Amino acid sequence: xxxxxxxxxxxxxxxxxxxxxxxxxxxxxxxxxxxxxxxxxxxxxxxxxxxxxxxxxxxxxxxxxxxxxxxxxxxxxxxxxxxxxxxxxxxxxxxxxxxxxxxxxxxxxxxxxxxxxxxxxxxxxxxxxxxxxxxxxxxxxxxxxxxxxxxxxxxxxxxxxxxxxxxxxxxxxxxxxxxxxxxxxxxxxxxx
Length: 192
What we know:
The protein has 192 residues and is of the alpha+beta class. The chain has a single domain, classed as NADH Oxidase, CATH 3.40.109.10. It has helices at 15-18, 33-44, 65-71, 76-82, 107-124, 137-144, 171-176, 184-187, and strands at 26-27, 55-61, 87-94, 128-132, 150-161. Helix 2 (33-44) crosses helix 5 (107-124). It is globular and about 50 Å long.
């Protein structure tokens, strides 16, 4: 079913990508551990340099102390709506290669690839993901006891979609705006 959030693409794109978006209104419903395991399994199969798999996902279900720890690291503008998500996740990158301890310059990219798998797999279960850069990285690092070789990349709210009307402005308007993207001419260059 086409909604206002379904991407209006200029070229054929699979429905899973067209229907992916980042809501802020989540229904307070528990995400089953089996579903979360499926979502995390999808992330684990993302490509990575030298098959290093430099990602780690630290997560907690709503209603737990771990959830409150993760939520406390969000900036206020994210915490106000993310509090309804069923699961909060911290996506963390290991910055060096395990075998050589040399810098892995593609670690952030690889975590991004894993996150893309995670988001799309979640959507197949009618679970939506909202990735957030608005968090206190130093607090998260301290609260989770991350090492110098671990860097928080983003935080992720996972949940079931709820109505936009429950949000305060300006979030309500953002929730109902039509999605747009730059034209291909702005993001790609053909060399001949």
